[in-house]
Amino acid sequence: MTKAKSLTSTSNSLSKRINQKKILSYHYRILMSACLWLSASQIGLNAAEQGSTKNAFSLFNGHSYQIITTPKSWYEAEAYAASIGGRLLVINSFQENVFIERLMSNYGQVAPDGGGAEYHWLGASDSLSENAWAWVDGSALETAKIAGRAFWGSGAGHGLGGSEPDNFNNQDCLAMAVTAWPVTNPGFYGAAGQWNDIDCDNKLNFIVEYPIDASYSEGHLNAENISVGDKKYRAELRLIECASICFQVSSATEIQNSSQLSINDVSEDILRLRKVNAGSKSFDVALKLTEPNSLIFTLDSAIETFSITAVPGETWLTATPDQVGLDAEKLQMAVDYAFGERQNTQGLVVVRHGSIVFERYAEGSDKDSIATSWSTAKSFTSALAGIAIDKGFISSVDASAAEFISDWSEDERANITLKDLLLMSSGLNEDGDDGTSMYIGVKGENDQSTAVDNVLFSINRTVNPERARWLGAEYTWKYANADSQIIGEIIERSSNQSLFDFADDNLFSKINITAAWWTDAFSNYMPWCCLDMTSRDFARFGLLYARDGKWGDLQVVPSDYVIESTAPSIVISENLPLGYGYQWWPDRSGKWFAAKGSRSNNIYVHPGLDIVVVRNSFYTRIGISNSREDGSYHSTKFPAVWNDSEFFNLVIESVN
Questions:
Q1: Which of 133, 333, 352, 393 is the most buried (most CB within 10 A)?
Q2: Which of 279-283, 307-311, 377-381 has the lowest mean pLDDT?
Q3: Contact indicator for 16, 220 with CB cutoff of 8 Å
């Protein structure tokens, strides 16, 4: 596929041609005639404002941000931002919210009516129409549409809805908490990074945001901050008929903008737009001026590039650590940890903004080498349960397992729900190490192992009164591979498909994964373990969860289910930093989570930082099949030492 065709495929409307229109602005005629062959340069800060800024400009996903540490009211801040060619901050994604939280973590101001916590202004208010929150760019503030995650405060609140923001009195302007809201102040409970409505007359720090990317939709290409010489322009180009793909400038305006950062520029006869957002994809686009008198450009190249919505097609995009805001030297510390002496790491893949940033394999292995999941497969099974619910095969996570496991319908096991199974809280007894029993078999008197039917083994368990929720047990969690086996059985019986066929139809094929799922000695798929695929394919699954279950324009796993399933629902032990969700291991901070398998075959996901890391151990399949029936088995190696939090925090700390 050519680069031009790759751009065409990003939008159904790109293939349409519209009639040529010569709407040429005076400013852009000046731009092209006087400045086209000048090299790009940057505009300096207004000297009067030098002392009021910190970390002068930061770049994220095609926008530039400037922290202003001269406290102003919301209205003063809005006017000031407009006066220097920017706007008060508009948050469009969960990832941007986390970026801003980190950026402003040292630059808050106390708001007396905000619980005594420190805040900075966001660019949203409902001062004109009560309960109709809108951003300064005119768009409605709809938190449900921002990556499916709520940013509103979680306090008791005062008014309609009973949570922050609550429109109490004249609290009509939106701010983000820099420090936690004091729990001693009734009505103000929350954490840094959450939003709160407060009095617009508060004097707070704020961020000026400058869009510097471009967008394509329905034949219109709009570009911000095009640097030409010492000037900057905003331009609109329209798709027109030609032998190839052509755009003609329809309007252009010189802008007064204090942002020093620009990713769009003119060099010789090439207009370079380094981030053009088209649907769920982004492109680095070069347009060649082919008709100077008519200001017509022909598409010279369009290369797909990274973004917070990017997902790989058949092949992965790549980026350098610096391009996606990672410190290469700090990231190397995580690499050294993974490939240290006797760590037995076969493959390590680091993904940020949908692109592979780092990839390394042990000698004799490469990107096509097969790795295995062990218990990481449980997280795949959890995803399939969410899909089965979304398709109506299962009513909800609260459905009784006995609806599908008839053996449980006549006794107290009818109290067990799908949610209990997902949380490893079935309340059923385990006979020793069920993983050994289900994979190798049960030893008899002659010390020989006899294979067990994983499904019957899992069904034929009895109730443990000390762990049964319905009997009042306070602590119900117990890691049980057999609970995961029952989840898989429910998926099969409800959908009338094998676990693998259901997974291939509804998950693997949607995100371009090629996988083999092992069966036990009785031809039962093993939903608790044993998925074989490449490290890159494991990373695809991690990226799906970093995207809240969405793959490009396709919602594969319901976003609400993704968020619910990866929350730290259960505290296993006060000494463990990881809790438990629906077959996932969330950090108890709630900021990241992991799919964990034996021998540290793990997937780490931080949605807010848009990072996925896969680590796999050495793996050799012994035998000729993917079934335990003929004695084939997995040969894998443990790392000498592995601490999930210690390892993944090295990656987190590499984020600039």
A1: 352
A2: 279-283
A3: no
